[in-house]
């Protein structure tokens, strides 16, 4: 190979340019501190560096979000701390008010203090920081509560991203704060009629008032009411020393067991049975056995029955009872009847059964409409007997006949009225979950049983002043009523046919929803009822009839709104009035019908009402669900009005009084402390997340540094070596450019 000047020049230039490029690259590394500046300089290095840079930025976002969340949680914790303190003050004030030495004036003053405390709690619940409300859920720009405790936020959590597909909440929604159920609490209910020793005339001798205990005999409860003319009775002689032979009492009980199943029971209670014996019989109906109790039944110091569900979190327990005792006209009749019974070979148990049979025959089996006196023939002689009613629960409600309720009335009562609303007092609770029902909930989900044999009696006093007696046959999915002309108008409970979109199909009985029931109530309350029958053919409703029905529904909603409120109660709102004349009552057609005589001391138990919407039932002392502000309002009313315990004779018979308030306050205080514990745990988790993010960020930065950063010593060494090589290349190039044959001639 011949080496020419051109080749020498080319090689020299290449060496110089290579040195320059290497030197330039080293200068770039020194200036940037990175091994590469462009992806093409090292693909693997670039990819690893980019991935690690993304992780660093993510961790920095986590740090920033955690700092923001931590600040919000500190403010939330501070607000909750003050609420816990305020509810403790509230409890102290109620304890002061229940003291017998307090005058009505002092109680009213305490009630004003309690009102201020409640308002402070509401103000704290409306706390906002930097324009964001702490307790509005995710609707942080919406003020969560009004002074009445109505909630306008949502139930959503605010979350920060703590990692790949992981989040952590950092707020307490207002729903959780004031409404979320506590499943570690028990439901407790109470009657509001106090059992007293009725062997004495307490009207004339109020000093003889004594509340009964579990060891008292049932005859002490009936007392003078065994006789219409009872002036001759001596409390000690005729009930203790020389006790009279007295007839047994028929006790009717109905309600719901802890498992949500309903029942009705009828049983005889003997005069000498103790109240504890009666409680045991009632407990057995609820499911108590000799080895296992599901409810605890007791009597408080005011002679009222209290029932406690022994399983935490249950919310179905319900109770109603009434007792009927044959009443003699006089002492003379009493002795004549005993003689006639003996002659005929009958017992006092037979007498009670005969009297109840006659009374029920006259009322059509309806225990709410027994109308004594009752005539019974014994040994060829007709005797007239009264019926003494022993009430367990009473109130200010109106029954479906328009009369003040009696102790036998259970759910055949009109909804309560409040301004332009009427509402049922029974929350619709889904048996499987214990949650409140919603519009989409099926009636069968609440009843827990098939509705194939269920008929609801619906009475509506409409906005237009009309009264409708409606039969809602759930089993046949049919609604019917009698119009003013005496004609029966009926229509099916229907829904849109998904195949056509403009016609209807009959809804199966166990698929009927609360929305459909509410729509039916709305039709009658607004006077928008179908005036001619709508007939289904093969479970199909033609398009014309279906559109007629839908038009009626839309027209009804312009004046009357029917829905389930936040506590699952049916609520009817008159949209065009601040007050309303609308009245609604709805109950199972069989709720007033019990097993027929003869009765015995063994309970005759049958299935109870499938559904209940409004009832003269036991009052709730405590339950897993809370309604914080409205609970406080009821307590303030109890203090202001001087209600010590529930009282059937008070202005508000369904208020559990100050004693009930103290039991409920224990729960409310614990509820707030639980929410504070939750936010504290979340705060600790967020703080740990922030610490972890900081540590990980440092680690990732170190790893990235190892991937992308230069080794300064190595680069400087390389630079010096490159500089030497570059200078050598320049020297060699210069030398070769001076070579000539003339130098060797």
UniProtKB/TrEMBL annotation:
Residues 4-139 form the Flagellin N-terminal domain. Gene3D superfamilies: f41 fragment of flagellin, N-terminal domain. It is found in: Secreted; Bacterial flagellum. One of its GO terms (cellular component) is bacterial-type flagellum. Its main location: secreted. InterPro entries: Flagellin, Flagellin_C, Flagellin_N. It holds the Pfam family Flagellin_C. Belongs to the bacterial flagellin family. This is Flagellin. It comes from Campylobacter avium LMG 24591. The gene is flgL.
